[in-house]
Amino acid sequence: MVTPEQHYEFLKQHYRASRFEERNNSSWGTAYSQHIADYRYEELQTVGYSLISSHESATGDAIIYDAELNKLDTIPGEKKSYTTQEHISND
């Protein structure tokens, strides 16, 4: 498992700045990004993976990652990840 510091740097690299460190202010809280990192790190410890939503992601794509910061194609335990269009056409 990575350290909390490595995890924070991973989030800093993959989050939109406006959704992470740029929120460290009096409105959101001066340690907003650290709270996000702590919560996601705890999730890695208990569940084994976490995610960055497409709304928060710097690329606009959701990122699922494991405790070693490997990017995953699907949520662990899921058989297949579908796009919205694939899901609609397969139902």
Structure overview:
The chain has a 3-stranded antiparallel sheet. The chain is 37% helix and 11% strand. The protein is of the alpha+beta class and 91 residues long. Strand 2 (63-66) and strand 3 form a beta hairpin. The chain has one domain. The protein starts with a helix and ends with a helix. The chain contains 3 helices and 3 strands. Residues 86-91 have low confidence and may be disordered.
Q: What descriptive keywords fit this protein?
A:
3-stranded antiparallel sheet; 91 residues; 3 strands; alpha+beta; disordered C terminus
Count the E strands. 3
- Helical percentage: 25-40%
Q: Spans of 5+ residues with little confidence (pLDDT < 50)? A: 86-91
User: What integer is the average pLDDT?
Assistant: 90
Q: Based on helices, strands and strand pairing, what is the structural class?
A: alpha+beta
Largest sheet geometry = 3 strands, antiparallel
- Summed up, the helix count is 3
Approximate shape: globular
| Succession of helices and strands | HHEEEH
The number of domains: 1
Going across the major beta sheet, what is the strand order? Answer: 1-2-3
First-to-last CA distance:
38 Å
Assembly status: single chain
The proportion of strand residues reads 5-15%
Report the C-alpha radius of gyration, rounded. Answer: 15 Å
List the helices and strands and how they pair.
Layout: H1 4-14, H2 32-47, E1 49-52, E2 63-66, E3 71-72, H3 84-90
Antiparallel strand pairs: 1-2, 2-3
